[in-house]
Amino acid sequence: MNTFSIEKELIQAWQLVKKDWKFFATLSLVVVLVYGISQFLIEFFKQDAPLLGILLTIISLVIYTILEMGFITIGLNALDGKPKKIADLFRTTKPFWAFIAMSTLYSLMVLIGSFLLILPGIYLYVMGSMAGPLLLERKLGPIEAIKQSFRITKGHFWKLLWFSIVLTLINILGVLLLGVGLLLSMPVTLIALLSVYRKLASHQAS
Q1: Sign (positive/negative) of CA torsion 19, 20, 22, 26?
Q2: What is the pLDDT of residues 85-127, one digit of tens each?
Q3: Per-residue DSSP letters for 60-83?
Q4: Which candidate among 45, 55, 67, 130 keeps its CA 20 to 30 Å from the CA of 161?
């Protein structure tokens, strides 16, 4: 099945980000700073104030989830040519508990699969990778979002695995470029992933 081209998806994502690179760089910077500061506070307090460290860990999880939902929503809006604002990062909060449940279930599946000679974990990671946008865009429940992810990715495992590796390498390259490259590699890889999600979902629906 030739549903998508990795090269074309990356080129399209880069062209989209390049048109509004200041916005996307600022967006990524906000995500990195907010998450980085929360992790620093956890490490700083966990030794001398364990209870405060636990509280900060919970708060960090909440913040990370909201940021992830907002980042995905902004990426989908960018693909649709809809208006986007930095503040949108913190506005996608309605399906918070459903997203938390989905992320927890998905992570447990991958973790358990990884204990089984690693390969099952990789398979579950790839096949469930579209659950986040499915939950947000189609307003599905946690379990249904994961099920739908497996449906739309069926028959595309190897290509999606290679795609995931390519996206990871791009972000690693962004980190190696003094971290500055990450400010653009993050939105490029996200939008490329969301574009593939849209194509797989459309193909499965037809």
Answers
A1: negative
A2: 999 998 877 899 999 999 999 999 999 998 887 889 999 999 9
A3: HHHHHHHHHHHHHHHHHHHHHT--
A4: 67
